[in-house]
Amino acid sequence: MTLKQNWQQNRQITLASRPVGAPTPDNFKLRETAIPKPAQGQVLLRTIYLSLDPYMRGRMSDAKSYAEPVAINEVMIGGAVCRVEQSHHENFQVGDLVVAYTGWQDYAIANADELLKLPEQLTTPSYALGVLGMPGLTAYMGLLDIGQPKAGETVVVAAASGAVGSLVGQIAKLHGCHVVGIAGSAEKCHYVTDSLGFDACLNHRDSNLAEQLAQQCPNGIDIYFENVGGAVFDAVMPLLNASARVPLCGLISQYNATELPSGPDRLSQLMGLLLVKRIKMQGFIVFDDYGHRYNEFSQAMSKWLAEGKITYREDMVQGLEHAANAFMGLLTGENFGKLVVQVGPLTLAK
Amino acid sequence: MTLKQNWQQNRQITLASRPVGAPTPDNFKLRETAIPKPAQGQVLLRTIYLSLDPYMRGRMSDAKSYAEPVAINEVMIGGAVCRVEQSHHENFQVGDLVVAYTGWQDYAIANADELLKLPEQLTTPSYALGVLGMPGLTAYMGLLDIGQPKAGETVVVAAASGAVGSLVGQIAKLHGCHVVGIAGSAEKCHYVTDSLGFDACLNHRDSNLAEQLAQQCPNGIDIYFENVGGAVFDAVMPLLNASARVPLCGLISQYNATELPSGPDRLSQLMGLLLVKRIKMQGFIVFDDYGHRYNEFSQAMSKWLAEGKITYREDMVQGLEHAANAFMGLLTGENFGKLVVQVGPLTLAK
């Protein structure tokens, strides 16, 4: 998968086969096709930044879910920042930057109503895929609308150095909470406490995570922002306070699972815990549930960024041909910050 | 445990030992003590109706929970309708009817601020333990505040002939929902459809519950009011719609469990379901979470009762000496309607 861009053809990464367990290079295929031509009302887009996100693992499977799976031999889906290369629609000019769900490819055709034009004052366009995009909205709405944090409460955030978790914890700090992160390496933990300002951060690869977490949460846990599942949730469960809230936006530790873990069956234990502690656990899919509140989020987050109250880190991979490897690493926590692939140059000059 | 009331002594049923699994007669002990004397600011209460409710099973165990367990050799706790026999407080007169948490005994002392005086127009005082009391408030708030039913949605209610379930389904019907009950006998199911007006009712002892439930819920399930757990929840899970709500007020099928069921461990499966279907599952303890909204509930329910829109059934057991047997039967579904023990006569004439 080393085909280099020649700008005469359209490279596409397709789903070659469905993964069983963790995705492997065989599941992806790089192919070249002709650059498509826009019809009336359409534009031709060139991908600049492609967002890689854990939800894409779900779309590679054909298990019943909230969204249609990617079909075999179809282009992998994904959101991207693109530049308009040709326009057959009056609202878009060549050179405009837009966000669109064009997927893992160099070029794509899109209808004008599928595009979100980026504001010209956005100095770092890739932020539209992260802190000012889907991960940011996820953090903001999951924490504030479902979590309802109050000053002095304890908030625990898994995947704390990642795109969503890093924002959840910083927003919780802005609301006066005691914030404990959980991340996958000592280096990430240092970043979470020193650069992001969390009160503490624990390495989930340590053997005594449960004890460390109990020490860092002497008053229990009021909000657990869940995007990981598995052993981290096991450590969180006994510490959840009465009336705790568990916004649930991902379970990355489970995405590659091929079968259920062995017993005992703790389903009834979880329900019993929710009952006796009056806990709310709520899954959400951010654009379906909160898309209508994007502007509210965008204004708040832009202000925090401008004031230097939010720190945001990207893990930028160069070249579409590295997307599959980067995505496989995302599922095992190899990225450090929001994973973005730079597919094409930002400026028009070649 | 056949000691009869002589009105010279106070009979008390105490917790003799903690049950392992289902409670047995050995766990209870009937004893006689002197009738206590009220101090200044207190009243002497005589129990008329004692409420028996599933939550009491939890208080018999010393597992960590939202409330302190009953201590060994202490009187079993419980809400009751009582008559004031002596009053040393200006707000209460001999003969007043009150609700108080006096427990399983003939007489008790209470402070004035622990009493809720019943309105004189309440023609059936025992209703204060059911349709107009804790079970009614549980049904009303769980369904309306957590469940947020909309006309045309499908609501499934377990323990549909019981104190809470019967009200949940009828309130859901008043909100235009398609309501399917689940109960433990053909006789109960007939009552649920014919007298309570549910659209359908299934017997959870039938072997093909899951298939029958799917047939009765052709559009899936939008609200599942959970007070049972176990096999009923297993049948409900695959039918839950996107954005479904699961108010969780009890898990009676689990209360006597001594260990977790064997595997596989479906905890992650449940969380995955909540995630991809954006489901809210929320436990609640009604007086802690909704006590401040009792008046709103009481007005609405009193109006429905007066208009004949709510049907309510009691299962009245005669005599405190039968309380333990009645309670053990409650946990296996032997009662039919709200279980109440008539401990003393309603009228003052002896």
Largest sheet of chain A: 7 strands, mixed
Number of helices of chain A: 10
- β-strand percent of chain A reads 15-25%
Structural shape of chain A:
globular
Largest interface: A-B, 43 and 44 residues
Tell me the CATH topology of the largest domain in chain A.
Rossmann fold
CATH architect. name of the largest domain in chain A: 3-Layer(aba) Sandwich
Topology of chain A as a string of helices (H) and strands (E): EEEHEEEEHEHEHEHEHEHEHHEHE
Q: Which structural category fits the helices and strands of chain A?
A: alpha/beta
Task: Find the CATH superfamily of the largest domain in chain A.
Answer: NAD(P)-binding Rossmann-like Domain
> Which residues of chain A form runs of ≥5 with pLDDT under 50?
none
Number of strands of chain A: 15
* Through-space gap between termini of chain A: 24 Å
Oligomer: homodimer
The rounded Rg of chain A comes to 21 Å
Structure description:
2 copies of one chain form a homodimer. The first copy, chain A, is an alpha/beta fold and 350 residues long. Chain A folds into 2 domains: 9-130 and 313-342, Quinone Oxidoreductase, Chain A, domain 1 (Alpha-Beta Complex), CATH 3.90.180.10; 134-305, Rossmann fold. Chain A contains 10 helices and 15 strands. In chain A, the strands form 3 sheets. In chain A, strands 3, 4, 5, 6, 7, 14 and 15 form a 7-stranded mixed sheet that branches. Chain A has a 6-stranded parallel sheet with strand order 10-9-8-11-12-13, with helices on both faces. In chain A, strands 1-2 form a two-stranded antiparallel ribbon. In chain A, α6 links the parallel β11 and β12. In chain A, α2 (134-147) packs across α3 and α2 packs across α9 (294-306). Chain A is globular, with a radius of gyration of 21 Å. The mean pLDDT of chain A is 92. Chains A and B meet through β12, α7 and β13 of A and β12, α7 and β13 of B. β13 (280-283) of chain A pairs antiparallel with β13 (280-283) of chain B, so a sheet runs across the interface. Chains A, B: This is Enoyl reductase (ER) domain-containing protein. Chains A, B: GO terms for molecular function: oxidoreductase activity, acting on the CH-CH group of donors, NAD or NADP as acceptor. Chains A, B: Keywords: Oxidoreductase. Chains A, B: It comes from Colwellia chukchiensis.
